[in-house]
Design brief:
Elements (H helix, E strand, L loop, with lengths): L1 E5 L3 E6 L2 E4 L19 H9 L2 H7 L3 E3 L5 E2 L8 E3 L5 H9 L1 H4 L7 H4 L2 E3 L4 E2 L5 E3 L6 E3 L1 E7 L8 H4 L3 E9 L1 E2 L5 H4 L6 E9 H4 L6 E6 L2 E7 L7 H9 L9 E3 L7 E2 L5 E6 L3 E9 L1
Parallel strand pairs: 6-17, 8-14, 9-20
Antiparallel strand pairs: 1-2, 1-5, 1-14, 2-3, 3-4, 6-7, 10-13, 10-18, 11-12, 11-17, 12-14, 15-16, 15-19, 19-20
Bound molecules: manganese (II) ion.
Amino acid sequence: MRLCQFQNRRIGLVQGDTVRDVTACLEELRPQRYPYAHGDALIAALPRLAPLLPQLAAQAAAIPLAQVQLTSPVANPSKIIGAPVNYRRHLEEVRADPALHHRQQIEEIQRIGLFLKATSSLIGPDQPIRIRHPQRRTDHEVELAVIIGTECDRVSPQDALGCVAGYCIGLDITVRGPEERSLRKSLDTYTVLGPWMVTADELGDPADLALSLAVDGELRQSARTSELLLDVPALIALATSFYRLLPGDVILTGTPAGVGPLVAGNHLRATIERIGSMTVAVTAG
Ligand code: MN
């Protein structure tokens, strides 16, 4: 299944180039009262809701995807986890370029582990990235994004893919500079997820997917997930060796070589094999 969110939190089932409104499935969620549980209630309920969605879709009109405004396919992640320099050629390009490393020693992911991005940075593909510090360099990073489906802790790599609800395209937008990654990557609109979530059963093994990013039609990044230093199971095992993952948590698996600057007016076109493509606008903040 391909599940999207659109307009003002409508839930959609994507079929070809159309979307069917299945928002009525939210009636099946258990009512919550303050203080609300961490995590995404829809993603948590997906195993229960999955049989209902095709039935709701069959009763809904087909809306052309081109006519809807897509928002993030996950509304409420408790954590957005980032994987720093998880492709060998990206590690080499960062170490070689002072504009990227800012005299910081760039360590390998096996040594420095993972970082967190603020969940308030999250938008979908039809919302613009708003450049907040135009006098500084802001870069694009295209990444495979993993959406966790079940609460899990201390997971082995062998069991890790069983915790995944699905996958989408992620953009980990980054201000270059000397500050901690968590600060430079947490600006409002600096995490883009989309265009929809492809469920794990439909996507299959994420181990060798082509991913690419073009800026105004010029190809900047192109790689395969088989080049990841820590693959998806290893990232889930590493994360859960430190903390629980909750339904809706997102792991951005790292970006390949070719990162480069963005300015207001740019349009990003990001593509991942077996997921799809999305175009994201960049505006002044
Ligand atoms: Mn990144």
